[in-house]
Amino acid sequence: MIDLYYWTTPNGHKVSIFLEEAGLDYRVCPIHIGKGEQFAPEFLKIAPNNRIPAIVDHQPADGGEPLALFESGAILEYLADKSGQFLPTAVRARMQVLQWLHWQMGGLGPMAGQNHHFNRYAPEPVPYAIERYVKETARLYGVLDRQLDGREYVAGDYSVADMAIYPWARVWEGQKQRIEDFPNMALWLERMAARPAVQRAYAMALEVNPDAQALLTPEARKLLFGQGS
User: Fold this and answer.
1) Which of the pair, 207 or 219, is modelled with greater confidence?
2) DSSP class per residue in 130-196
3) Are residues 189 and 218 in the same domain?
4) Nearest CA to 28 among 210, 159, 209?
5) For residue 96, what are the domain limits?
6) C-alpha count within 13 angstroms, C-beta hemisphere, residue 221
7) Is pLDDT at 29 greater than 50 in this prediction?
8) Is residue 227 very low, low, confident or very high in pLDDT (cuts 50, 70, 90)?
9) CB count, 10 Å around CB of 172?
């Protein structure tokens, strides 16, 4: 059994998609980041960076004591190796997947995250920041679109790279992007959305958090970003 410490953010969705795709037994442990539950001492023992997602694997790959992990990329790599799914073992194929996983972790996630912040959460508009991150998000989607030319999935076969990128890319509209600028990405988004495991992961998200505006209140913003009321 795997405990998934989770909230309904793009990073949270990555791991729930994997668990659904792999058919692993897991239990959702909601961490409402708009209420400050990520700062609870018991959660910080699992995720010292006070961010979701995190997991505790009660049957770890080495057979030892329960294993706690934080950082979504590390979790995906661990679960893929444990289950033998969605991450090749052959060196070249594995590196192809991992470089796109790290591209999301180091590029698309941070840049699109800042895009979200300045477009949705900032207490007042900052035109330079909005333009900066909208343009950088567009550049990154251009990179993704070129990679997807002639491919069904990002690294060829379906992999953890797709699971990591999809939750960020599916909200392109809120990032002030034009999907017609990225036709290969648009087709890939449709393929991803049609996968039953992806649909189950997002259905679970609605059960955990039916309020899509839960992180937009002044109280939530103060907890998330240290903003005043």
Assistant:
1) 207
2) HHHHHHHHHHHHHHHHHHTTT-SBTTBS--HHHHHHHHHHTTGGGGT--GGG-HHHHHHHHHHHT-H
3) no
4) 209
5) 91-194
6) 15
7) yes
8) low
9) 21
> Any residues with CB less than 8 A from the CB of 87 and at least 6 apart, and which?
76, 77, 80, 81, 94, 97, 98, 159, 160
- Same domain for 154 and 77: no
pLDDT for the residue 191: 98
Is the predicted pLDDT of residue 226 greater than 90, yes or no? no
Determine the average pLDDT of the residues in 66-94. Answer: 98
Distance CA 1, CA 221 (A): 33
3-state secondary structure of 89: coil
Q: What is the pLDDT of residue 211?
A: 85
For the chain, the domain total comes to 2
Residues 25 and 118 in one domain: no
